[in-house]
Design brief:
Elements: H1 10-23, H2 29-41, H3 47-60, H4 64-78, H5 102-109, H6 112-121, H7 128-141, H8 143-148, H9 150-160, H10 185-197, H11 210-217, H12 223-232, H13 251-255, H14 268-274, H15 278-291, E1 296-302, E2 307-314, E3 320-324, H16 348-356, H17 362-380, H18 383-396, H19 401-414, H20 419-432, H21 437-453, H22 457-470, H23 476-493, H24 496-510, H25 516-532, H26 536-549, H27 557-571
Antiparallel strand pairs: 1-2, 2-3
Length: 581
């Protein structure tokens, strides 16, 4: 097809939209898929343009009910459902294109850069019907502004498609004081776009990609508070970390075990006037950053004496500073943060991917394109083409996780009995992700399982030992996760005497000098389990042993929680449902 040797013209895009309006997107999808594959196989250089037209046809032609069902299944599988989400969704006839104007469809399909960004960002955890509906609302409000700030519109769409959870941005303030509700998406878009046009932002929002802008648009404070922050929070990009220290630390609240906000009002100005604890400092600073058009991330974690919170932001050099307030009290372990797009926790590798910003590189985008074609060939059963495209993907950029996943899937489909081939790919992946511990561990575990399937038990044991030793010294959080998994396995498989022995051994080997994170993930679940099983003396003994083994400072939060749990166990408050075996 001669047409695939050049970029799709606006006339061609308009003709596709009009044909789809008359006959449905399903009528144009097969031809677009064939055109994309032909352009890819001929290496014309225009494969991405044709591919994204095909992806739009596939998305817009999806029946609404099917899209919602697949989204709900993804949410349930990822365990990110929360009480603020709708309990049910009404049936709607037609496909996802219903309700989208011809003008918006032309704006989406005719913008190659936006199409690329859209499909690289879109997650199975995004509600596709709501994402498109939000884009429609923003476009209908001001089409010119939409075209000027497409990445901002996209960021709002993938964040506002699902309401925020009740514990976001943190759970230490009542919903009556900080309602977990987003403003209208089109109002947020207009507010931020106009702010940017009047030079009211520290970053030029039109230059930031959607995967960073989503850390600007995730705002829960009203516009009036954002206006206040721009006037009253002086730090700029050179020293924005100082915004954290603008809030006086209230040690009296810690002494009184008052971890939730005690007052009747929770606004930025009141927090500044009254002071707060670390979670209030982090909320204040991160919200003030968003008010100034600065992407910010709020972290929560556990340190030696208590849970802590800090924040990060994108600085003037386009680099993420993620330790603002992190060492204000002590050195803390790896923190957790919400991804506002999915409401899952941002995992280790994703946080590093964000800071390294390599996903905007041409080589990475090319790697993504090869992986996309590999996945599409795999869906069609073209296994040889899928394997070839997937191999090309990881060769272009070895940090493309999806490229490795589709390569493993293609290899398994093409040669299901070839465990040596699978082992070889997994060893490559382990090496590729040495900088990203959670990914290295994940692929290493797959490698260990493959070795066991091959009967190589000694090699599998060696890999397990290597993995355990590698992160014992410098990644306490990974060590704790492993300790928790060991105790959890014992709780479900061993007799009671063995469970207690395993807990004591793990506490002695991994818990000495550890702190509240170890208590949360290892000690507390086991104590609840013992108490719920009627083993009250053993539960109290486990708490006492933990008190003598962990690093427990007098008067610290950990000391208070140990004492409180002992009191609860003695009183008989623990019931069967409290245990998490």
């Amino acid at each position: 097809m001669e047409e695939t040797s050049r970029v799709p013209t606006p006339v061609r895009v308009a003709a596709l939209v009009d044909q789809a309006a008359a006959q449905g997107w399903g009528s144009v999808m097969p031809g677009l898929r064939a055109a994309a594959q032909q352009a890819y196989e001929a290496n014309t250089g225009y494969a991405p343009a044709w591919y994204y037209l095909y992806r739009w046809s596939r998305l817009l032609g999806t029946p609404y009910q099917k899209a919602i069902q697949e989204w709900i299944q993804a949410v349930e599988k990822a365990h990110v459902a929360h009480p603020n989400m709708a309990e049910s969704y009404d049936y709607r006839p037609g496909s996802l294109s219903a309700g989208l104007t011809r003008e918006l469809q032309l704006a989406l399909l005719g913008n190659a850069a936006l199409s690329e960004e859209f499909f690289q960002l879109l997650s199975p955890l995004d509600n596709p019907a709501e994402v498109l509906a939000i884009l429609q609302r923003i476009h209908r409000q001001d089409a010119g502004l939409f075209n000027a700030y497409p990445s901002l519109a996209l960021a709002i769409a993938v964040v506002y498609d699902v309401p925020p959870p009740p514990i976001w941005p943190h759970g230490q303030v009542k919903a009556s004081l900080l309602p977990r509700k987003f403003p209208a998406p089109e109002q947020v878009f207009l507010y931020l776009a106009k702010l940017d046009r009047t030079n009211g932002t520290l970053h030029r929002l039109g230059r930031l990609p959607a995967d960073e802008l989503k850390f600007v648009v995730d705002i829960v404070a009203p516009f009036s508070e954002l206006d206040w922050a721009r006037k009253n929070v002086p730090p700029g990009l050179a020293d924005f970390g100082k915004a954290y220290d603008m809030i006086k630390y209230r040690k009296d609240r810690i002494t009184a075990n008052q971890y939730s906000w005690p007052g009747p009002t929770y606004t930025l100005s009141v927090i500044q006037q009254q002071g707060g604890i670390c979670v209030d400092q982090a909320y204040f600073a991160s919200t003030a950053g968003k008010a100034k058009g600065v992407p910010t991330i709020m972290f929560r974690g556990a340190g030696l004496d208590g849970r802590h919170a800090w924040f990060g932001y994108l600085d003037a050099s386009q680099r993420w500073q993620l330790d603002c307030g992190r060492y204000a009290e002590q050195k803390f372990v790896v923190g957790l943060a919400f991804d506002p797009q999915t409401w899952a926790n941002i995992n280790d590798h994703e946080l590093l991917f964000i800071t390294e910003r390599f996903r905007n590189l041409p080589t990475y985008k090319l790697s993504v394109m090869h992986a996309e074609f590999a996945a599409d060939y795999l869906r069609e059963g073209k296994l040889e083409a899928a394997t070839k495209a997937a191999r090309e993907s990881v060769n272009r950029d070895r940090r493309n996780l999806e490229g490795w996943n589709v390569l493993l899937a293609a290899q398994s489909a093409q040669s299901p009995q070839d465990l040596r081939g699978r082992e070889s790919i997994l060893r490559e992946a382990v090496l590729a992700f040495q900088k990203y511990p959670d990914l290295e561990i994940g692929f290493s575990r797959e490698l260990i399982e493959t070795l066991r399937r091959r009967g190589e038990k000694s090699l599998a044991a060696f890999e397990e030992q290597r993995l355990g030793k590698k992160y014992q010294a410098n990644r306490e959080d990974l060590s704790i996760t492993q300790a928790a998994a060991t105790v959890q396995r014992s709780m479900t498989q061993d007799d009671m005497a063995t469970r207690i022995k395993v807990f004591n051994r793990v506490l002695d080997t991994s818990g000495r000098g550890a702190a509240i994170d170890f208590y949360d993930k290892v000690v507390l679940p086991f104590v609840l389990h013992l108490a719920a099983e009627g083993q009250v003396p053993a539960a109290l003994q486990a708490l006492e042993r933990a008190k003598n083994t962990l690093r427990v400072e007098p008067g610290s939060q950990l000391a208070g929680e140990l004492a409180g749990m002992a009191k609860k166990v003695k009183s008989g408050e623990i019931v069967k449902k409290d245990a998490q075996p």
